[in-house]
Design goal:
Layout: H1 2-19, E1 34-39, E2 50-55, E3 61-62, E4 64-65, E5 78-79, E6 86-93, E7 100-109, E8 114-115, E9 117-122
Parallel strand pairs: 1-9
Antiparallel strand pairs: 1-5, 2-3, 2-6, 4-5, 6-7, 7-8
């Protein structure tokens, strides 16, 4: 019985350190600060929109089509910078340049990565 008790104590003590709050396992992936979808007033994707952003009042930059270096054309989701927290102002403009929508979002910093935000911008009619 004593051997069983010792084995139980050893097994529990081996598991406990892995459960503590100081343990963190960060991945090597890079996360976009903001992911952006652009839709019309009926909810239809506007894949040919132009999406730009600023971070913390800095210069305007073009968002990239998620998964490629494409900035305009057939895009379902755009992304801003990777792993950069801050205050973002996202702007979407229709392909014809006649309709614009803008939204602000704050991106925090987690222990390992930014706390990504998802934004859906609705272009007015």
């Amino acid at each position: 019985m004593r051997i069983a008790s010792i084995a139980t104590v050893l097994a529990v003590s081996a598991v406990l350190p892995a459960c503590g709050p100081s343990q963190s396992f960060c991945t090597l992936e890079a996360r976009a600060a903001v992911q952006v979808k652009v839709v019309d007033t009926r909810g239809n994707p506007q894949r040919d929109a132009r999406v730009t952003f600023t971070r913390d009042g800095g210069p305007e930059q073009q968002a990239l089509c998620n998964g490629s270096q494409q900035v305009q054309g057939n895009c379902d989701t755009w992304v801003t910078e990777y792993e950069k927290p801050g205050h973002y102002v996202i702007t979407a403009t229709s392909a014809d340049g006649q309709r614009t929508v803008r939204q602000s979002v704050s991106v925090g910093e987690g222990e390992c990565h930014v706390q990504s935000q998802t934004v859906t911008l609705m272009l007015p009619d």
